[in-house]
Amino acid sequence: MNPTRDQIVDAAVELAEQADWESVRLQDVAHRLDCPLQELSNHFREKEELADAWFDRADQAMLRAAADPALVSLPVESRLEHLLFCWLDAMQARHRVTRQMILGKLEPGHIHIQIPSVLRISRTVQWLREAAHCNASGLRRALEETALTSLFVSSFVLWLRDAESGPEQARALFRRGVHGINRRFGWQAATILEALPPAQATSPDRVN
Prior knowledge:
Layout: H1 5-18, H2 26-33, H3 37-41, H4 48-66, H5 76-92, H6 95-105, H7 111-131, H8 138-161, H9 166-185, H10 187-195, H11 198-201
């Protein structure tokens, strides 16, 4: 069998569900897929890249949601909330394993993992802003992105804490936080009109 990247990630996550993420070994994944270990190396250089691919899936789920033409008609706060929770919902069914992946990255001595993880958070937030049509530039963009990154991390941490209550707590926190960011940076006044086609941008009453 020549497994695809998705099949390898699925197999690893399924094995983690049976035990935990820490105990998953690449040779176990290869055995589950009935393929040589070398086939895995054609797609991933190390186990940590499987976790990265898991979060890449969430990014893609968010970007698929952004393709919905109806999204642009929402207020920017609602757009950001909807997109963030598409990202989180993509991992909800494997909440426990996702939490273990994050905890593994945070273990002392894993600096080589933690620095790329920080960069990954930044990348996801950039995609979130792009998908929500947050079009600020220069200093305003930097300040806006810093505030949104802090809110993103805080909401994600709340989501990770508990599979049952975490999502609702995260949603409440995000709504409060994104409203505060909006008041500070004026998304409502500028960004929505920038995101609309010209015919709609001339009619603000249509954006509610």
